[in-house]
Design goal:
The chain has 179 residues and is α+β, with helices and mostly antiparallel strands. 41% of the residues lie in helices and 36% in strands. It is built from three helices and six strands. The longest helix is centred in the last third of the chain and has 55 residues. It starts with a helix and ends with a helix.
């Protein structure tokens, strides 16, 4: 991310931001809660997602899934690290991930590694590979959306700051003109 770590972390732990991002990505529903302390955080998210699955995958997985995600964060040195677990009720699938958010000279770097578990005899490995590829693609899309939304908010702040500065200058000019 081209933003400092604190700014990015605030977005990653903001339930309203997560909900808005999920809906912007086309998810049907997203509910998110967060509990934050000085050096730790916990998020619980329930997302209803419609997936475009290959016909063969539809034999084993529903195209509409409700995902329950438990995410934990903790401070690690100058950065943060954490993990999450995704349970999909009535589906033979869970997803786990470990991640880090580290400061860099350009802003910060978010790294994530997913592990997919499928419990279908004979097709577990191909299904896990397909789902891992899909999760990685969707994660990249989420991160790009988050970055774009942060840039848009920064631009709005910059415009508002410019407008306020312009108003202050105009007021000062008017006051000088009146005196």
């Amino acid at each position: 991310f081209g933003h400092e770590l604190g700014t990015v972390l605030e977005k990653l732990l903001d339930p309203a931001f997560i909900q808005a991002r999920s809906l912007a990505l086309g998810e049907e529903r997203c509910q998110c809660t967060a509990q934050r302390e000085q050096d730790a955080a916990r998020m619980t998210t329930v997302r209803v997602v419609g997936l475009d699955l290959p016909r063969v995958a539809l034999r084993f997985f529903s195209a509409r899934q409700t995902m329950h995600m438990e995410e934990t964060w903790r401070r690690q040195g100058e950065g943060w690290c954490g993990s999450y677990h995704v349970d999909i009720p009535e589906q033979p699938l869970t997803i786990d991930a470990e991640f880090t958010l580290e400061p860099t000279p350009e802003g910060c770097l978010f790294r994530i590694a997913h592990t997919v578990h499928v419990t279908i005899p004979l097709v577990s490995r191909p299904a896990e590979a397909f789902i891992a590829k899909t999760v990685a693609r969707d994660t990249r899309a989420e991160l790009k959306k988050r970055e774009a939304r942060m840039i848009q908010k920064e631009e709005k702040i910059d415009r508002k700051t410019e407008q306020l500065e312009h108003r202050e200058l105009e007021q000062a000019r008017q006051e000088r003109h009146l005196n």
